[in-house]
Every structure is written in structure tokens, then in C-alpha cells.
Amino acid sequence: MATIPLKAQQRVIEGLKKFIPLVKTLKAKDINESDTVVVVTDILCDVFGFEKYGEITSEYAIKKTFCDLAIKIDGEIVFLIEVKAIGIGLKSDHIKQAVDYGANQGVDWVILTNSSSWKIFKIVFAKPVVHELVCEFELENISVKKEADLELIHLVCKESILKTALEDFHSKKQFLSKHFLGNLLISDGIIEILRKTIRKMNPDIKIDVESVKKVLTEEVIKRELFEGEKANDANKRINKFLRSQLNQVKKGPEVNKSE
């Protein structure tokens, strides 16, 4: 993960020291949604580094409804944020509401929060539109002494957005997902490597690619990894890469025309 700039790290630590106890106190008081929006706005400024005047817009109009907050950088919306009262748990219908805002507005990233719980979603504009939970955290459980916690918070910071760190984190998470790795393991190239390795270990054994693939898909790897939208997406990524490699082989090495 990217190194956190010192200035941003100091702001994050100071902000967390202020808001972690405050959120605990306000949760005990069970403040309403309007007051929670105020708290979230302050967190966006003092912890995540966004400018209150110019970058944070409240009651952002989307069709015939309003999203609680929107964050704009250089005139472009980078986050839509749906806020619930601090005492309300974030449920599936709340997630749908937040994701629908992003889908209707064409915004890739949405945040659902009650100031205590934070969920960051990436919207994938496919057919149908889908969403992925990229990261989440409980503010009260964050420790300013843990580097991993600070890195998690930094993903949502302004500095991270400007350097596409959140996008990079999402891409890394996709490539390390069980669906991607599972489908990669049964791709022709990887299975051929396994087959050759087995042959080297015992040259007398005759093994074909299909035999190895059959054992992997039926006995080694869970079937769920090969089914559904995530598996299909993983397959598309793998096949696209393999096609590009094949095309490079067909083209052969580039010839230096100046020679």
C-alpha cells in the first residue's frame, strides 16, 4: 500500500483522537440523522482532508431525490455519501439506496456511514450494474498506533483519491480474490505448468491437461468459485490477458527498422 504523506498522517491521527471518543459519546446519546450528517462532514474535513467549502456538498440532487453528501474534486464527483443516524445499523436496504444513487448519477464510488460504521463501495457499470464492498471499518475500533488501521483510513483520504490509491487497492483486492485465483489455477497455462511439474517428478506418468483440470475443479477447488458474476468477471480478465499474450507471440519480436 502507498506510503502515507507525513502531513496527511498527522492530520489523520489528530482527527481520530478527536472523533473516536466523540462518536462513542454521541452514539450513547443516540443523535438523529441530521446531527450525524454534521459529524460526518466534520470527519470528512478533519480526518480525510476534504475542504468543507468547495469540495463537500450537502443534499446533492439526484433525479427526484437527494443524497446526503457529495464530494467533488476539480468539479468532478468522487464520492456520494449516504448517512444514517448514528444509532442505526447499516442494512442491505441502506446499501441499495446508496448504490442506486451512484448508479443513477454515474459515480463509481459511494460511501454508506452512520459516522461510526463506514462502508465503501465500488460500482461496476456492467449489465446489470453491480457493486463491490471494497473496504469497511468501525471508527471506534481504529487504533492510531496500528499502521494497518491508518492505511485503511488513508484509502478514503483526499490524498489517496488524487493518487488513485483506492482504485489500486480495489484492483489488488480483485486479483487476490478467491474467484480470480481459483479461475487462474484452472487456466490452460497454469495447468500446463502443473502437468509438466508432475511429469518431471515422475517421467513414467503420462498425464494430460484435462485430467489435471478435472481433479482441480471436482476435488480440489470449491465449485462456487467457478459460478456467478464474480467468476465470470475473473474469467474475462484472465482470457483477455491470455489473448494479449498469444497475440504478442504471433507478432513475434519487434524488428528494428533502422538496422
What's the helix and strand layout?
Blueprint: H1 6-29, H2 33-46, E1 56-62, E2 65-73, E3 76-83, H3 92-105, E4 109-113, E5 117-124, E6 130-138, H4 147-154, H5 158-162, H6 165-175, H7 178-185, H8 188-201, H9 209-220, H10 229-251
Parallel strand pairs: 3-4
Antiparallel strand pairs: 1-2, 2-3, 4-5, 5-6
If you had to describe this structure to a student in words, what would you say it looks like?
With 259 residues, the chain is of the alpha+beta class. It has two domains: 6-163, Alpha-Beta Complex (tt1808, chain A); 178-251, no CATH class. It is 51% helix and 18% strand. The chain has ten helices and six strands; from the N terminus they run ααβββαβββααααααα. It has helices spanning 6-29, 33-46, 92-105, 147-154, 158-162, 165-175, 178-185, 188-201, 209-220, 229-251, and strands spanning 56-62, 65-73, 76-83, 109-113, 117-124, 130-138. The protein has a six-stranded mixed beta sheet, sandwiched between helices. Strand 5 and strand 6 (130-138) form a beta hairpin. Helix 7 (178-185) packs across helix 10. The longest helix has 24 residues, at 6-29. The protein is elongated, with a radius of gyration of 23 Å. The two termini are 43 Å apart. The model has no long low-confidence stretch (mean pLDDT 87).
Helix content: 40-55%
Count of structural domains: 2
The CATH class of the largest domain is identified as Alpha Beta
Let me know the largest β-sheet. Answer: 6 strands, mixed
Strand content range: 15-25%
CATH architecture of the largest domain: Alpha-Beta Complex
**Coarse shape:** elongated
Uncertain residue segments: none
Biggest sheet strand order reads 1-2-3-4-5-6
